[in-house]
Design a protein that fits this description.
By secondary structure, the chain is of the alpha+beta class. The chain has helices spanning about 1-20, 35-40, 50-55, 135-140; strands at about 25-30, 60-65, 70-80, 85-100, 105-110.
Length: about 160
């Protein structure tokens, strides 16, 4: 009877360990446009126009606001490791360029190489100037402010005396 209890306890601990380790896997999530390469290849410069691109690829993720009204389709795959923040693993940006008449001029495809990685320096922004401690901030002005000019009227034509 004791051996059976030991086997059940060992099996239960192994099962709990597997469940614990299984919870430490990364989560993959897709965001944005789902790219179908066959549909993308069917968009031809000089043949298609805005209406045919919309019927083939659907509405764009966004449209450029300045210059030519290019259409952008954004697709991202994001990985979230356990106990960490999400990070973009793959990204594709499709840009469909149109001429002023609304005909397709070209289709550009860019990936993650165009993404700029920013590495912030902690929770502070470095600035020029003196670094002061809390006590210097609290007591630094004691004796530095004089009483000259207290109670005198401003000089000059403006409201501040200038």
């Amino acid at each position: 009877m004791r051996k059976v209890g030991l086997k059940v306890r060992t099996a239960g601990m192994a099962l709990a360990l597997v469940a614990l380790v299984g919870g430490c896997t990364s989560i993959r999530d897709h965001r944005g446009y789902l790219i179908d390469q066959t549909l993308l290849d069917s968009v031809q410069p000089g043949i298609d126009n805005r209406l045919s691109v919309e019927k083939t690829l659907g509405r764009p993720t966004f449209e450029s606001q300045f210059g030519q009204k290019d259409w952008y389709y954004i697709s991202q795959t994001v990985k979230t490791p356990p106990f960490r923040s999400a990070r973009t693993a793959e990204q594709t940006v499709l840009r469909v360029r149109f001429d002023p008449a609304g005909n397709v001029v070209g289709v550009d495809k860019r990936g993650l190489e165009q993404v700029a990685r920013l590495d912030p320096d902690g929770h502070t922004t470095p600035t020029l100037g003196r670094h002061r401690s809390l006590l210097e901030d609290l007591f630094g002005n004691i004796g530095a402010v004089g009483t000259g000019g207290a109670g005198t009227a401003p000089q000059g034509p403006g409201p501040n005396g200038s």
